[in-house]
Amino acid sequence: QVQLVESGGGSVQAGGSLRLSCAVSDAGYCTYDMRWYRQAPGKERELVSAITSAGTTTYAASVRGRFTISQDNAKNTLYLQMNNLKPEDTAMYSCRCWGPGYQYWGQGTQVTVSS
């Protein structure tokens, strides 16, 4: 079983930056891709960004140009650099590891952006 632990969340003012980390017990299991999702209170979970094992990245339109996803395979860690944060970015952010027939989730880290 793969374990994922997110960190790096917090409270910032609009325009600020945060870097989220997702430590993966064995990133080698995430053969399809790894993703960041977020869910705000009363809203559906939203895909924020994804990175494949080949390094191809995708972003939600709402974060493109402000967020950057990356991974350090040597450290088994997924990152999400978030710049120019907006109040609408406030949510619980979770990472997901996806492989053939399985997916694993972390517990999430809260991001709160004040205006």
What brief labels describe this structure?
115 residues, mainly beta, seven-stranded mixed sheet, four-stranded antiparallel sheet, 11 strands, 55% strand, globular
Description:
- The chain is mostly beta strands and 115 residues long.
- Helix content is 0%, strand content 55%.
- The protein contains no helices and eleven strands.
- It has strands at residues 4-7, 10-13, 18-24, 33-39, 46-52, 57-59, 67-72, 77-82, 91-99, 102-105, 109-114.
- The strands form two sheets. Strands 2, 4, 5, 6, 9, 10 and 11 form a seven-stranded mixed β-sheet that branches. A four-stranded antiparallel β-sheet has the order 1-3-8-7, with no helix packed on it.
- The protein is globular.
In short:
The protein has strands at 4-7, 10-13, 18-24, 33-39, 46-52, 57-59, 67-72, 77-82, 91-99, 102-105, 109-114. With 115 residues, it is mainly β.
Order of helices and strands: EEEEEEEEEEE
Total beta strand runs: 11
Rg from Cα: 13 Å
Main sheet, how many strands, which sense, barrel?
Answer: 7 strands, mixed
Terminal-residue CA separation: 40 Å
Please tell me the overall pLDDT. 94
Helix percent reads under 10%
Task: Sum up the overall morphology in one term.
Answer: globular
Portion of residues in beta strands equals over 45%
Return the structural class: mainly beta
**What's the tally of helices?**
0
Low-confidence region ranges: none
